[in-house]
């Protein structure tokens, strides 16, 4: 009798959410992570401060699809950053914005292109797909898609040192990443090391495949993966056509938004170091 009552108390303790810091409490009560117009106003502020060009998919309308760039034609190196291709992954979008606001001098002095939110309709509605029900991260080689054609046009002719696509995963139990890289070039594990104190690395399998300390690495065999997942992802297209290394970073959706955003910021600090 005594033993069972102790067990009940233990479970009660385990299931209570305690120990939130003041900063986290304020953040969770005040973030506007699905407010696309608010986000885009902040991005326009980043562009002004960093002296970056702003491109819109449709300049005539009040589009919320923006790209910020300071790339010069024909330049080599530089960084490609994107978030929000899946609309139900808000920490990726928030993290990219927070990182940019904290790194204006970097953005002034390094070649960078940023796609702050590739699926604004999805973010507004908390949906993975776009308004036509398409998973944009499975059709990144389809030029008949207006968004895809627009991204292709903006990066035509560029070779990036590194591309980073930011995501979240509802099934994950920790942070992990997909690393598409040239042989002998490894960044994934050291990037995760910078943030695993905030959220630990995912252990075990991802989509049926074993990860190595949270890193799913490929140097070839991409065609087979594209077939398996049912279409070309953004990072795959970038690796095949534009980037030496293409990283897809994932935070676990069921952790605190506050911590997930912090992980994206730290991840981007690491990516910026590669591009310095
Ligand atoms: Zn995603």
What order do the helices and strands come in, and which of them pair?
Elements: H1 2-14, H2 22-30, H3 36-50, E1 53-56, E2 66-69, E3 79-83, H4 90-102, H5 104-109, E4 112-115, H6 120-125, H7 146-155, E5 160-169, E6 176-180, H8 188-193, E7 205-206, E8 209-210, E9 215-218, H9 222-229, H10 234-241, E10 243-252, H11 257-275
Parallel strand pairs: 3-4, 3-5, 5-10, 6-9
Antiparallel strand pairs: 1-2, 2-4, 6-10, 7-8
Zinc ion (ZN) binds next to loops.
Written overview of the protein:
There is one protein chain. The chain has 276 residues and is of the alpha/beta class. It has one domain: 3-Layer(aba) Sandwich (Aminopeptidase), CATH 3.40.630. The protein has eleven helices and ten strands. The protein has helices at residues 2-14, 22-30, 36-50, 90-102, 104-109, 120-125, 146-155, 188-193, 222-229, 234-241, 257-275; strands at residues 53-56, 66-69, 79-83, 112-115, 160-169, 176-180, 205-206, 209-210, 215-218, 243-252. The chain has an eight-stranded mixed beta sheet, with helices on both faces. A hairpin with a 2-residue loop joins strand 7 and strand 8 (209-210). Helix 4 crosses helix 11 (257-275). It is globular and about 55 Å long.
The CATH architecture can be named as 3-Layer(aba) Sandwich
Q: How would you classify the helix and strand content by structural class?
A: alpha/beta
Q: Could you estimate the helical fraction of the residues in percent? A: 40-55%
Order of helices and strands: HHHEEEHHEHHEEHEEEHHEH
Question: What is the rounded distance between the termini?
Answer: 64 Å
Classified in CATH, the superfamily is Zn peptidases
CATH topology: Aminopeptidase
**Largest sheet, order of strands side by side?**
1-2-4-3-5-10-6-9
Whole-number tally of structural domains: 1
Biggest sheet layout: 8 strands, mixed
């Amino acid at each position: 009798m005594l033993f069972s009552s102790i067990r009940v108390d233990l479970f009660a303790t385990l299931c209570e959410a305690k120990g939130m810091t003041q900063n986290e409490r304020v953040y969770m009560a005040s973030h506007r992570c699905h407010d696309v117009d608010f986000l885009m106003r902040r991005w326009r502020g980043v562009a002004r401060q960093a002296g970056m060009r702003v491109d819109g998919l449709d300049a005539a309308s009040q589009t919320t699809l923006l790209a910020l760039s300071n790339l010069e034609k024909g330049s080599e190196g530089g960084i490609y950053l994107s978030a929000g291709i899946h609309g139900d992954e808000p920490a990726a979008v928030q993290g990219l914005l927070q990182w940019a606001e904290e790194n204006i001098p970097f953005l002034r002095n390094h070649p960078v292109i940023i796609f702050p939110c590739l699926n604004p309709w999805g973010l507004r509605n908390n949906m993975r797909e776009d308004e036509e029900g398409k998973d944009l991260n499975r059709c990144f080689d389809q030029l008949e898609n207006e968004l895809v054609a627009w991204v292709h046009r903006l990066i035509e002719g560029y070779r990036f040192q590194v591309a980073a696509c930011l995501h979240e995963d509802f099934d994950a139990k920790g942070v992990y990443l997909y690393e598409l890289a040239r042989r002998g070039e490894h960044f994934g594990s050291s990037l995760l090391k910078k943030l695993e104190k905030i959220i630990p690395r995912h252990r075990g399998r991802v989509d049926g495949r074993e990860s190595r300390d949270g890193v799913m690495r490929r140097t070839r065999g991409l065609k087979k993966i594209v077939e398996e997942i049912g279409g070309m992802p953004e990072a795959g297209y970038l690796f095949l056509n534009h980037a030496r290394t293409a990283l897809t970073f994932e935070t676990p959706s069921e952790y605190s938004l506050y911590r997930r955003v912090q992980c994206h910021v730290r991840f981007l600090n690491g990516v910026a170091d590669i591009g310095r």
